Amino acid sequence: MGQGEPRLRVTEIFVSLQGEARAVGWPTVFVRLTGCPLRCRWCDTEYAFTGGESLTLEGVVARVLAAGVSRVCVTGGEPLAQKACLPLLTRLADEGLQVSLETSGALDISAVDPRVARVVDIKPPGSGEMARNRWENLAELTFRDQLKCVLADRADYEWAREQLRTHALHRRTEVLFSPVHGMLAPRELAEWILDDRLPVRLQVQLHKLLWGEARGR
Fold first, then answer.
1. Alpha helices in 68-153 (DSSP H)
2. What distance in Å separates the CA atoms of residue 96 and residue 101, rounded to the nearest whole number?
3. Distance (Å, rounded) from C-alpha 147 to C-alpha 169?
4. Is 29 helix (H, G, I), strand (E, B) or coil?
5. Angle at which helices 186-196 and 154-166 pack, to 10 degrees?
6. According to the model, what pLDDT value does residue 4 have?
7. CB 176 within 8 Å of CB 21
8. Contact 108/124 with Cβ under 8 angstroms?
9. Architecture in CATH of 7-203
10. How much is the pLDDT for 2?
11. 111, burial (CB in 10 Å: exposed 0-12, middle 13-18, buried 19+)
12. Do residues 75 and 33 touch, judged by C-beta distance below 8 A?
């Protein structure tokens, strides 16, 4: 390995069932990168803000391949905050894996390898980070990607409903509305979506239904 090989700060690499987005339920290798410039009020991965292990790019790829499953999700923290995330995504795709990226929507997604499915957040008022939304990302989305709105209450829902209509989000990509675990009942959100006939997909976090807040699951 060359001295100049890219390195990444990695919080954890583990195998679980994908709990969110289009690949929900599939065995997946998760690569959780360390660090995030946002501080959402309901963040469930604060342990990934700092610390982690420094690994070479090829070291990360080797661990993913050793896991023996065909799907890999690069997440965080905010994975795009590390420059080496982009070449990592490309290397994983080069290996023939089905690669997804979970990102906060605050950073530019335009340079992500087109073989990667991007799951991009937009942050509602209740997150405390609405001002960090990078609206230019909307123009980059395709139906290979998904746009996720994590909602804590009725005010967040009404805000997200307005963005859906104003930006015709459902005509750009598949839109997911997800309740904050323990703050908004999934059934209540489901009823709002049905009442308004919204062209969105309700998402609940499968991994939390199965294992609660356990790490590495």
1. 85-94
2. 15
3. 8
4. strand
5. 40
6. 77
7. yes
8. no
9. Alpha-Beta Barrel (3.20)
10. 47
11. exposed
12. yes
